[in-house]
Amino acid sequence: MNVRKIVGLLAIALLIFFVITQPGSAANSVQNIGGILSNAANSIVTFFTELV
Question: Is the pTM of this model over 0.70?
Answer without folding.
Answer: no
